[in-house]
């Protein structure tokens, strides 16, 4: 495998992106989902902090660049199909979501109500 051949093990989509799940090292909480392109992954490896691709802004996005809630990457895993990356991270200040929540996954499906229930601090 060539020096950058390991990048070819990743199944990039039509936009040359791959979905990335960020999971907290200690708690194992799933914090968020984002996207990476090759440059974002290479910059993540270089810096040791999560760098994503912002589809809305069409540029690299250093997680926490505005909020200070950076993600120190402890481990990078690729799923068996090569089409999803898992980052095991230390989440600075315990806040991953732009809403100020620990995790972006605070909406819970209630089948009895056929509705999403907001389990965030603000929704309780």
Automatic annotation (TrEMBL):
Q: Which GO terms describe its molecular function?
A: phosphoribosyl-AMP cyclohydrolase activity
Which reaction(s) does its UniProt entry say it catalyses? 1-(5-phospho-beta-D-ribosyl)-5'-AMP + H2O = 1-(5-phospho-beta-D-ribosyl)-5-[(5-phospho-beta-D-ribosylamino)methylideneamino]imidazole-4-carboxamide
Localisation per UniProt entry:
Cytoplasm
Which pathway is it part of?
A: Amino-acid biosynthesis; L-histidine biosynthesis; L-histidine from 5-phospho-alpha-D-ribose 1-diphosphate: step 3/9
Binding locations of Zn(2+): 80, 97, 104
**Cofactor stoichiometry and binding remark:** Binds 1 Mg(2+) ion per subunit.
Q: Which UniProt keywords apply?
A: Amino-acid biosynthesis, Cytoplasm, Histidine biosynthesis, Hydrolase, Magnesium, Metal-binding, Zinc
Family, according to the entry, reads as follows: Belongs to the PRA-CH family.
Function recorded in the entry? Catalyzes the hydrolysis of the adenine ring of phosphoribosyl-AMP.
List the protein's name: Phosphoribosyl-AMP cyclohydrolase
Gene this chain is encoded by: hisI
């Amino acid at each position: 495998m060539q020096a950058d051949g390991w990048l070819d093990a990743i199944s990039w989509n039509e936009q040359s992106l791959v979905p990335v799940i960020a999971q907290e090292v200690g708690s194992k909480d799933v914090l968020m989902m984002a996207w990476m392109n090759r440059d974002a992954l290479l910059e993540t490896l270089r810096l040791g902090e999560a760098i994503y691709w912002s589809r809305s802004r069409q540029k690299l996005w250093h997680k926490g660049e505005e909020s200070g809630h950076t993600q120190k990457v402890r481990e990078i895993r690729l799923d068996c199909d090569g089409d999803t990356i898992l980052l095991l991270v230390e989440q600075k200040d315990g806040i991953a979501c732009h809403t100020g929540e620990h995790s972006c996954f605070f909406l819970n499906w209630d089948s009895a109500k056929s509705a999403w229930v907001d389990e965030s601090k603000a929704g309780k």
